[in-house]
Design goal:
Elements: H1 4-13, H2 38-59, E1 64-66, E2 76-79, E3 86-89, E4 91-97, H3 103-116, E5 121-126, E6 133-140, E7 143-151, E8 156-162, E9 166-167, H4 170-177, E10 194-195
Antiparallel strand pairs: 1-4, 1-10, 2-3, 3-9, 4-8, 5-6, 6-7, 7-8
Length: 227
């Protein structure tokens, strides 16, 4: 298992997000944006994580992998629109292989879950043979954009969501999420490796919390019950 995506996120959060922090906020962003508080960021996370959980459980109530460490609680840096102000976003990716499953049934289950959450979605099919892909795209509601991708040739199903770029420092927010002033290189070990029927979302991963991956990046089995 690789942690490439999360490693990139760590680099982004530890550089290029300057400005002095406002106590209880996610960092200064300049005159055009008021930085969000930790509580606001947590609210964004729970809306996204709970929504994604509802979608994946509607598709298949199983243990979904957290792809490339993208649990959703680790902020990454972004730019606010066309401005030069720094911001942050949260990204969650879940994956499961369902070989032999009718892709349209998977898409219908995802669309039904979005509808239950009050979010409209569009189903699109493209490609043929091994390149065939069915996607379900929803915008708004649980995140800025949520995409379910189904690849019939392999049975691979991926659900990815990302929040809108919000004002605040990704680095300052990460130091609150992980309760450390300087983030260690293996902070990803504290993030859950799976999202299953009994999973509960968490936005706090202090140093004394459980580890979900060993030093090689292999998920710990069984996974700790709570963060």
């Amino acid at each position: 298992m690789t942690m490439t995506a999360l490693a990139v996120g760590l680099v982004l959060t530890m550089s290029g997000c300057g400005g002095q922090s406002v106590p209880g906020s996610t960092g200064a962003t300049g005159e055009s944006g008021v930085p969000e508080t930790y509580a606001q960021a947590e609210e964004r996370f729970f809306a996204m994580a709970s929504g994604v959980h509802s979608v994946i459980m509607a598709i298949e109530p199983a243990e979904w992998s957290v792809v490339d460490g993208a649990y959703g609680a680790h902020p990454t840096g972004c730019r606010l629109g066309l401005s030069e102000d720094a911001g942050y976003r949260l990204i969650a990716v879940r994956g499961l292989d369902l070989p032999g499953r009718d892709p349209r049934l998977v898409a219908d289950a995802a669309a039904g879950a979005f509808a239950a959450l009050g979010v409209d979605s569009d189903v699109t099919e493209r490609g043929q043979g091994d390149a065939r892909e069915v996607t379900v795209v929803a915008e708004g509601g649980i995140a800025e954009r949520t995409v379910v991708t189904i690849r019939p040739a392999t049975g691979q199903v991926r659900v990815s969501a990302e929040t809108a770029c919000a004002p605040g420092s990704a680095h300052d927010l990460a130091t609150e999420v992980f309760a450390e002033d300087r983030l260690p290189a293996d902070v990803w070990r504290r993030l859950p490796a799976f999202d299953g029927p009994s999973s509960q979302p968490s936005f706090s991963f202090p140093p004394d919390g459980p580890l979900y991956y060993d030093e090689s990046g292999t998920p710990v089995q069984p996974q700790p019950e709570s963060a």
